[in-house]
Design goal:
Keywords: FAD, Flavoprotein, Monooxygenase, Oxidoreductase. This protein is an alpha+beta fold and 289 residues long. The protein is built from ten helices and nine strands. Strand 8 and strand 9 form a beta hairpin.
């Protein structure tokens, strides 16, 4: 530890985010996240303000949950919205190529003026631009997107990494949180009854974690590379290094049924239980046996 103390634990989980200071220790080599050349504006607006505008009310009057998104293909800019906080607020994300003026170092996010946002979304309909000028509880901020080469293992000794520390997701499919929930499900199943003093059992469970999570996590991380991810040169070959399951058609839109089935319909509880049943190790096996 920083103060010189040593601490011994049965299992250490590293989940300190995209800017993890520990992931290189797990990987065994430098694995720093680097900027991907894309950024996003994010802000919240009140649904009351949205519904006060007739043209926006026509868009958001449906009670159906989910995303509403628009794309400016000429400038490779997308505008995505979804309700949050019990439907009282609208979360807005505008993804775009990073501007030269947005290059502050060492900051997770920074405030940005509405004028800067309006310049970026010039190609969108005027009805959407109204949301840029609506009051926001803490203003508009921009966030840089980061990338990191896929890891071949999330485990070292009795340490495992999960979340953005293990795989830095871009928000293309909004799957970062979902994939972390999957990893948490794997942890629950694999370690709920293991004897932590049994070294053989622990190593087997950690290997199972890699076997379950490397394919899913790296698939989703690579899929977040962009809206046309499967059309990118060499992308399928990169994915197949880790993942052998089904893929959507190359031209399937990001939120199409084919993409949703691959990225969101996975049952990690079921997958972990199945693997555990196949590779069952009696908990009474003596250490070192």
């Amino acid at each position: 530890m920083g103060d010189g103390r040593s601490v011994v634990k049965d299992l250490i989980i590293i989940a300190d985010g995209a800017h993890s200071r520990l992931i290189s220790e797990v990987a065994g080599y430098s694995s720093r996240a680097c900027r991907a050349g894309r950024s996003q504006y994010r802000w919240l607006v009140s649904m009351d303000d949205v519904m006060d505008e007739a043209d926006l009310r026509a868009i958001y009057s449906s009670d159906r949950p989910g995303f509403k998104a628009w794309v400016d293909p000429e400038n490779d800019t997308f505008w995505m919205t979804y309700r949050c906080r019990g439907g009282k607020f609208l979360n807005i994300v505008v993804g775009h190529d990073t501007k030269l003026s947005h290059d502050e170092q060492g900051r997770w996010n920074s405030p940005v003026s509405s004028a800067q946002v309006l310049a970026t979304v010039e190609g969108f309909h005027d009805s959407l631009k109204k949301m840029v000028l609506m009051p926001s509880e803490d203003g508009i901020h921009y966030h840089h997107q980061y990338t990191r080469p896929p890891l071949t293992s999330f485990v070292r000794g009795r340490t495992l990494a999960m979340g953005d520390a293990a795989h830095v997701m871009k928000p293309t499919h909004a799957a970062g949180a979902g994939i972390s929930i999957e990893s948490a499900a794997a942890l629950e199943v694999l370690f709920r009854s293991v004897e932590f003093r049994n070294e053989r059992a622990m190593q087997q469970r950690l290997q199972m974690f890699d076997k379950l999570r490397i394919p899913r996590c790296n698939l989703t991380m690579l899929a977040s590379s962009g809206r046309r991810w499967l059309q990118m040169p060499g992308m399928e070959a990169k994915i197949r290094r880790f993942y052998s399951g089904p893929l959507p058609p190359p031209h399937a839109p990001p939120y199409s049924k084919e993409c949703r089935e691959v990225l969101f319909h996975h049952d990690e509880y079921q997958a972990a239980e199945k693997l555990l049943a196949q590779d069952y190790l009696p908990e009474s096996t003596p250490t070192g046996a």
